[in-house]
Design a protein that fits this description.
about 100 residues, mainly alpha, Zf-an1 domain, about 30% helix, zinc ion binding, AN1-type domain-containing protein
């Protein structure tokens, strides 16, 4: 039986640990540079100011910026919000014939 030197055994253990790949030392994915593209996949640049949908928070080009144009997942919520916002105005302008 041969005795193993404790310092050599410790060095072998640390070498074995450092040779195994770990998820913390993996290379990060490269950051995409350049203007953001339309979320629909048409390949056009997203419009900076009006290209972000306020209902689904995705970026779109000028052609797809409206909720109806990009089939927004929150389109019904958009419609309900618009109706609630304009309901008092519609009722106030309602024409009612006077009774004689």
């Amino acid at each position: 039986m041969s005795a193993v030197n404790p310092s050599v055994a410790a060095l072998q253990d640390t070498a074995a640990l450092s040779s195994t790949p770990s998820s913390s030392t993996s290379t990060p994915t490269p950051v995409r540079k350049g203007p953001p593209k339309c979320h629909t996949g048409c390949g056009e640049r997203a419009v900076k100011i009006v290209g972000t949908c306020r209902y689904c928070s995705a970026n779109f080009c000028s052609r797809h910026r409206l909720p109806e144009a990009h089939a927004c997942s929150n389109l019904q919520g958009c419609r309900d919000e618009s109706i609630a916002k304009l309901e008092h105005k519609l009722i106030g302008e309602k024409c009612v014939a006077s009774k004689v």
